[in-house]
Amino acid sequence: MNTTKTVSIIFYKGPGTLGEKLIRLWTSSPYAHCEFGRSDGLYHSNDRFRFVSRTHTLEIDPLDWEICEIELPSEIIDRVERRQLRKNGTKYDWIGIVFSQIFRLGYHDKKRWFCSKSNADDLAYAYRLMQRSKKEQYDFYVKRFRIFGETSPQDFSPKQLYSVVQNIIHSHMY
User: Fold this and answer.
1) Residues 52-110 pLDDT 10s
2) I want to staple 145 with a disulfide (CB 3.0 to 4.6 A). Which of 42, 101, 109, 127 is the partner?
3) Which residues, in sequence order, are bridge partners of residue 113?
4) Residue 141: is it exposed, middle or buried by C-beta count within 10 angstroms (0-12/13-18/19+)?
5) pLDDT tens for residues 121-130?
6) Which residues pair with 55 in a beta bridge?
7) Where are the alpha helices (DSSP H) in the chain?
8) What band does 172 get if pLDDT is binned at 50, 70 and 90?
9) Cα–Cα dist 108/145, whole Å
10) In whole angstroms, what is the distance from residue 86 CA to residue 172 CA?
């Protein structure tokens, strides 16, 4: 029996800090931050104030957050969420922000995260798990999430990740 779980990627569009306003200006986007909404109701990303990866509760005001729900196989989500816990406590990837987001050179620290890099990495990990398994029941998802096998996680800004997630949600394959 193939069961699924619903997770979400949520995008912050609230008033924000000066840094978040600069992100919006730089990316020409209403979104300055994103979080991975886990199946257990917690959220995982880099804390936008302390710059460290963590899993925690979050009060979601729909006026401040855009919620994008994604359905994936339960066993894949379980593995992604276990992996997220191992990311907890890692520091912010300032090298990646400067050399992947600002200068677009692709340099980043493989053991550090910023919000959209971490969330895209989680979706890329899900994609790789499904692709490698070669299970026929995953073919549907592998096709929809293919971009995460073609684009490096550090290349995603919140704006770009939002666009990709919207395309997945609204694709005719869903």
Assistant:
1) 999 999 999 999 999 999 999 999 999 999 999 999 999 999 999 999 999 999 999 99
2) 127
3) 92
4) buried
5) 999 999 999 9
6) 44
7) 18-27, 74-87, 94-96, 115-133, 139-144, 147-150, 158-170
8) low
9) 23
10) 35
| Residue given tokens 């729900």 in the structure block | 69
The one-letter code for the residue type at 70 is: I
Look up residue 105 and give its two tokens.
């050179």
Count, residues in the chain: 174
Cβ-in-10-Å burial (0-12, 13-18, 19+) of 25 comes to exposed
Say how far apart CA 96 and CA 137 lie, in whole Å: 35
What 3-state DSSP class applies to 64? coil
Give the strand pairing for 53-56 and 43-46: antiparallel
Q: Going by C-beta distance under 8 Å and a sequence separation of 6 or more, which residues neighbour residue 62?
A: none
Distant-in-sequence contacts of 135-139, Cβ < 8 A, 24+ apart: 137/2, 137/73, 138/73, 138/76
Q: Nearest Cα to 25, choosing from 102, 134, 109?
A: 102
Residue type (1 letter), 47: D
The mean per-residue pLDDT over the stretch 123-138 comes to: 97
Report the distance separating Cα 45 and Cα 26, nearest Å. Answer: 21
